[in-house]
Design goal:
Layout: H1 13-21, H2 26-36, E1 38-40, H3 41-47, H4 53-65, E2 69-74, E3 80-85, H5 87-110
Helix pairs in contact: 2-5
Length: 126
């Protein structure tokens, strides 16, 4: 399957920003890497209940191509690969913080359920 171009033309800045965070898992990958700093693939997968290996791989590749995620491969047996946010990724995560605050307020207002997950304890409860 060919990927659509990810470099415009754009209508506005929000269009350009949403191009790099589109997809269900990218915002969560940003959050997971911001919370933990460095994660291996299996750790990311455990931290994102419901993500498939294929989708996580695809999103990580796109985020690496967009300069949001750094992929570090260590020449070991077996090979060790670690992912972390770049400065560009940290800046995007900071820009998304107000959206996250809005989402937390929505969770409270709607009395929505949260996924039961070890890291979900970091989220405010409604």
């Amino acid at each position: 399957m060919a990927m659509s171009p990810r470099n415009g033309p754009y209508i506005c800045g929000i269009d350009a920003a949403l191009d790099v965070v589109s997809g269900k898992w990218k915002g969560l990958i940003l959050w997971e890497l911001d919370e933990h700093g460095v994660r291996r693939f299996a750790e990311l997968r455990r931290g994102l209940p419901g993500v498939s290996e294929k989708m996580l791989t695809q999103h990580l590749r796109e985020m690496e191509a967009d300069g949001l995620v750094r992929r570090q491969v260590y020449a070991e047996v077996p090979p060790r690969v670690e992912y972390s946010l770049t400065e560009h990724g940290r800046a995007l995560n900071a820009a998304l913080a107000p959206l996250g605050e809005w989402g937390v307020e929505r969770i409270r207002r709607e009395r929505s359920d949260l996924v039961e997950h070890a890291d979900a304890a970091a989220l405010p409860r409604p």
